[in-house]
Amino acid sequence: MEPRKISLRASLYTLPVRLRKLLAAPRRHGDKNIPAAAPNQETLSPPPKPKPNKKSMWKRRGRMRARLSAAKKHAQELEERNRLQTEFIADISHELRTPLSGILGYTDLLRDGMYGPMTPEQLEVLTHIRDCGYHLLDLVNEVLDLSRLKKHQVQLELENVPPTELIDAAAAAVQALAKQKRLELLTKCEADLPSLRIDFRRVYQVLLNLLSNAIKFTHEGSVELGARRDGKNIRFHVKDTGIGIAPEFARHVFKDFRQMDGVPRSFGGVGLGLSLSKRLVELHGGKIGYTTRQNKGSEFYFLIPC
Fold first, then answer.
1. pLDDT digits over 179-203, tens only?
2. 109-168 pLDDT, tens digit each
């Protein structure tokens, strides 16, 4: 077998590698072991790390502490401002509700003819006054409910309620409103759903808020109300074919006193219905969410544990 030929250029190229291997291998001289040559620290060791500048490090830490302190102070100021705003609105709402109830009471007495007969024109005007008054009363009650929820002063009156009973009651309450806008109101409830341990009035309030919004923001098409089983929960939903929600407003949907930019004021409301609904659902141990397509419609849903 012919010896392998190595070119001069290849041998020169591999010479430093072979020398390093030879120096790194332990050698033996008689009965004594000669330790391997120490590698060249200048070429094999990583460069030494620079010593930290303690003065600059403490300066950076001081700046971070100052920023955290400022952020904490700002958060506390916002929380205090929100608390004062809520208390002020609640106090004003209490003062408004008493005279408003009196106005509505006298309006009903006039409509019923307690003070003499009324002409059709007068009855029509009184009906408008009554409707506006009850709308304002609903807004006042929403503010008061939100204030109580924030202060954890709402006590649930729990009872066993079949989901179909909730669906039928909510649909009947908004049937006239949907008919007035010429919208089709659909109900879709799964059969044999178990009863829920809930506060009927509060969950009914959530459904009314969602249905009112759906009808308010839908010009044509339909609004669907339904319930079905979803694992260990009952899933309620309100689906519409309305204007949908703009992507830039998505993170503000459940915030207090927030309404979508660009929505005409003719839609009314102060932006409390969804915020209040979220708190009431969470008070029952559930959760609320939505899906939407702008100019195609939205679906709001919430889950209540069985």
1. 989 999 999 999 889 999 999 989 9
2. 888 888 888 888 888 888 888 888 887 787 777 777 777 777 777 788 899 999 999 999
Distance CA 256, CA 284 (A): 20
Query: Which residue has tokens 């120096």?
Result: 23
Contact of 276 with 145, CB cutoff 8 Å: yes
End-to-end, the C-alpha distance of the chain in Å comes to 87
Domains of the chain: 82-154 (1.10.287), 159-305 (3.30.565.10)
Q: Distance between CA 195 and CA 305 in Å, rounded?
A: 10
H or E element that contains 262: none
Which neighbouring-strand residues pair with 164?
A: none
Query: What does 265-305 look like in DSSP terms, one character per residue?
Result: GGG---S-HHHHHHHHHHHTT-EEEEEEETTTEEEEEEEEE
Spell out the residues 6+ positions from residue 257 whose beta carbon is closer than 8 angstroms to its own: 270, 271, 272, 275
